Amino acid sequence: MGMQGDFFRLLEAQGYQFGVSGGGSHDQQFTTATTILAFKYRDGVLVAGDRRATAGNMVMYDRTDKVLEIDRHSVMAIAGVPATAYEMVRILEHSFKYYRRTQLQELSFEGKLRAVSKLLKDNVAAALAGTGAVAPIFAGYDFEQETAKIYFYDILGAEFEGVEYAVSGSGSPTIRGILHYVNTWGDQPLSAMTEEQSAVQALRLLTSAAEFDSATGGVNREANLYPVIKLITAKGITTMSEVDLKRHFEVSVSRSI
Amino acid sequence: MYEEPYKWVEAVGNRRQYLDEQFKQGSPVVALTYEAGIVLLTVSKGTPKLYEIYDRLALGGMGHPADLEKLRFSLLEMAHVEGFNRSPSDVTGSRMVKYGIAPVIKQAFEEVFKAPFIVKILLTELGQKAGKETFLVINYDGTFEEGSHCAVLAATKAVEQDMMKLLRAEPGRSLEQAVGAALQAWALGDRLQGQALEADADRGRESQADLASIDVASLHAYFRETVAEKTIECAVLDRAQPGSAKYRALAPDELGRLLPKDVRASLS
Questions:
Q1: Active site residue ranges of A
Q2: B90 is a domain residue
């Protein structure tokens, strides 16, 4: 049967190359992107990310979307070099669709995880050269096990399951501790939280990350700029509207800063 | 022997005759617009005949399953490589047909020493805006036609013309109304093909169906009898579908709710 439905192999056959090291020097400053998180809540998985992209001390962009939909039930949140990360997302998006359309069935959740891992492994040369390191979080709904799941990766492609939550990016050490604290000693574990409670937690976590990490963007109410929050359930992916984000922020986040 | 021009013309003529024979028992395919996009319907035995090609492209086919599969893969490869290298917006039905599969089908048809594709293809494209839908029908010889409201595949041109009479452009038609119209057009096409097969007198027949004389109840009755041991395939390109991929095959329970009452009762 060979590699039926393999879009990446089709691209390679057309001469496409991925993960080629540009041999960047260490004094160059590349754009990177910063705090992302995912945790399981009552109905599924919440994935969130700040909007800032930086190069050294320079804020390059404050409206970056780091939480990207790959298909109807999978999301990849990106931390690292956006150029490589967006390319990976485009490859994955086309790979999953190509598989579904050629094989007339969805790629399994495990197959999707392997595809992410494979791309990261193919990208090792660029990652080690400093021109393409990406450490993403992949979350999606696993129909075989009837549950939403979270996985996080290192830049070499090692894959780890975030049983309750996962974080990545420069602001992640700050919120990792908070997540552990909230999940262990809070009023209720993360997995018991409603959609609204989860969204409030995500906003508070990203606001905390922005407080201690200059490379993480916070909320800018004047510019109507909020983090991106996506929710994955068996029904698919929904993106929290700016109206809801603003309401949650004003009611449950800003007063406690 | 084919180096002489008239022999080649004769060989192509024979090939046309041979191919026409192959489609006589094929199941027609119907596609038409509705308020949220495009609906496609056919009835199949075993292998499916409706497929998702790209975010806004769907395919319906008639003919040999292996040939259809080969061309489907060509379309899938072209669409995905183009969508990745450029943009999904650049993957249009018109480009896929004109510069993609139509020349391939034409070449196969005219190379008389090789086997032709025993296939007719209907490619539908959901426009970026409502009212900008495209329907492309490619014949086994590589010729193609473009329409904007509906299109059908059937054994002969005459049957296709009769089916098209039932599918007038009706902006704002609901999905239920569109499924009903598609079902009637399919039943009419299949019935005419069956009659032609029995009489073996279809060749050269002019379009004959008179709208006033088409009895909806008899079409529904024919549909009920014909689909008993087959599968009704129905898919939509739905503008309201979240995400970039707009294709959705209707599940049996959803399709059941959309079928006309007298058809639904007998199939349940």
A1: 34
A2: yes
Average pLDDT over all residues of chain A = 91
CATH of the domain at A126: 3.60.20.10
Mean pLDDT across A29-44: 85
Tell me what pLDDT residue A257 has.
46
| Residue B4, domain member (yes or no) | no
Q: What is the ipTM metric for this complex?
A: 0.91
Identity (one letter) of the amino acid at B128? Q
Residues A203-247 pLDDT 10s? 999 999 999 988 888 888 888 899 999 999 999 999 999 999 999
Six token digits for residue B128:
């970026």
Domain range for A118 is 31-256
Residue A37 lies in a domain: yes
Domain that holds residue B51: 26-258
pLDDT band at A34 (very low <50, low <70, confident <90, very high): confident
**Residue among B73, B81, B83 whose CB faces A102 most closely:** B73
For residue A22, being part of any structural domain is answered with no
Contacts of A18 in chain B (CB under 8 A): none
B48/A98 touch (CB, cutoff 8 Å), yes or no: no
- Supply the CATH number for residue B66's domain: 3.60.20.10
What is the C-alpha separation between B99 and B94, in angstroms, rounded?
8
Contact of B81 with chain A, judged by CB distance below 8 Å, is answered with yes
In a domain, A5, yes or no: no
Number of Cβ within a 10 Å radius of residue B13 = 10
End-to-end CA distance of chain A: give it in Å, rounded: 58
Cβ pairs bridging A and B (under 8 Å): 39
- For residue A49, give both structure tokens: 């990310």
| Residue B245 to residue B254: CA distance in whole angstroms | 19
Is residue A14 included in any domain, yes or no?
no
- CA atoms lying within 13 Å on the CB side of residue A148: 28
- Cβ contact, residue pair B84, A91, below 8 Å: yes
B79, two tokens: 């669409």
| Residue ranges in chain B whose pLDDT is less than 70 | 1-3, 201-213, 266-268
CB B63 within 8 A of CB B26: yes
Q: How far apart are CA A165 and CA A38, in angstroms?
A: 5
Which residues in chain A belong to E strands, given as ranges? 32-33, 36-41, 44-49, 53-55, 58-61, 67-71, 74-77, 137-142, 147-153, 159-161, 165-168, 228-233, 236-239
Number of folded domains in chain B?
1
Q: B52 in contact with A at a CB cutoff of 8 Å?
A: yes
Domain count, chain A: 1
Q: For residue B267, tell me if it sits in a domain.
A: no
Inter-chain residue contact B245 with A71, CB threshold 8 Å: yes
Decide if B80 and A72 are in contact by the 8 Å CB cutoff: no
For A16-30, A85-99, A209-223, which range has the lowest pLDDT when averaged over its residues? Answer: A16-30
In DSSP terms, which residues pair with B52 in a beta bridge? Answer: B58
How many other C-beta atoms are found inside a 10 Å radius of the C-beta of residue A187?
8
**Is B17 a domain residue?**
no
Global pTM value: 0.91
